[in-house]
Design goal:
By secondary structure, this protein is α/β, with parallel strands linked by helices. It has one domain: LmbE-like (Rossmann fold, 3-Layer(aba) Sandwich). About 35% of the residues lie in helices and about 20% in strands. The chain contains six helices and nine strands, in the order βββαβαβαβαββααβ. A nine-stranded mixed beta sheet has the order 1-2-8-9-7-6-3-4-5, with helices on both faces. Strand 4, helix 2 and strand 5 form a beta-alpha-beta unit. It is globular and about 50 Å long. The two termini are about 30 Å apart.
């Protein structure tokens, strides 16, 4: 492995140490894309974007990137309470997404207008033509330089929505770039320069996240409805005191593990596809 203090974009040769999967073959790892002017992160559920790329998006936003969020499902399965009011849960989770996006962008509350919702039923997300068309519409409207989303090829993935979200993102990207897909949208085709897939089965790119760990934690803890079910904070701790500290430690540990793919102290690892 070369000097870990390499300049942006320099490639590092690694033989092992990938944080996900069991492939230990030699892989070329790049570090830090140029800050895009616009980025679109596509998550299956509320909070998936923050888990997958929250620190990267915060870093880019601080450097002037316009960060957009697209949440594909309504999050209506996100409760362990069998008597939960699902309409209220969906509304709460949408508001949590907006609050988390404000934390990531640093915008004052009430000014965040870059959170988009597709509203598919949680647990029933499908890579079908209608969903591809809807995502392609957002891609052609937002016109991001970089798209971020789930790696659909991650082995042993349990949640079907995560696989479906990854596949529909890739299919919609192909549709958005080519003029003969969905001409009825009346929008010009758009081809991003890069696609970053988080929770990658084989990571080949890392974004430095040093200094943005706390922002990632803050954004995740905006998802108050998920503090117990997803964040593991017993009793739905509001993320304060020891509960917050323990959660922040888990996130920091993950960032250390992912950063180690490129010899960094803190990072978010992805599979980068730049031939789009």
């Amino acid at each position: 492995m070369t000097d870990p203090h390499h300049p942006d974009g320099e490639q590092v040769r690694l033989v092992s140490g990938l944080p996900t999967g069991d492939l230990l073959d030699t892989v070329t790892v790049t570090v830090d894309l140029p800050t895009p002017s616009c980025a679109l992160a596509i998550g299956a559920h509320p909070d998936d974007i923050e888990f997958g790329a929250g620190a990267t998006l915060a870093k880019w936003s601080a450097a002037g990137c316009h960060v957009h969020h697209l949440v594909l499902s309504d999050g209506s399965k996100g409760s362990w309470d069998p008597d939960a009011d699902l309409d209220l849960l969906v509304a709460a989770r949408m508001q949590e997404c907006r609050e988390a996006a404000v934390r990531i962008s640093g915008s004052p509350p009430g000014t965040e207008d870059r959170v988009h919702f597709l509203g598919r039923v949680d647990g029933e997300l499908a890579d079908d033509v209608d969903t591809r068309k809807a995502v392609a519409r957002v891609l052609r409207t937002v016109r991001p330089d970089v798209v971020l989303g789930h790696d659909p090829w991650r082995r042993y993935r349990l949640h079907p929505d995560h696989r479906a979200a990854g596949f529909v993102t890739i299919a919609a990207l192909v549709a958005a770039r080519d003029p003969h897909f969905f001409p009825q949208l009346g929008l010009e085709p758009h081809r991003p320069s890069g696609l970053l897939l988080w929770e990658a089965d084989l990571a080949n790119h890392v974004e430095r996240t040093a200094g943005y760990e706390a922002t990632k934690v803050d954004a995740l803890l905006c998802h108050h409805s998920q503090l117990e079910t997803t964040m593991g904070l017993a009793g739905g701790d509001a993320g304060m005191g020891t509960g917050r500290e323990e959660f922040a430690s888990r996130i920091a540990w993950q960032l250390v593990q992912q950063g180690a793919v490129a010899g960094l102290d803190s990072g978010e690892a992805f599979h980068l596809i730049d031939q789009l």
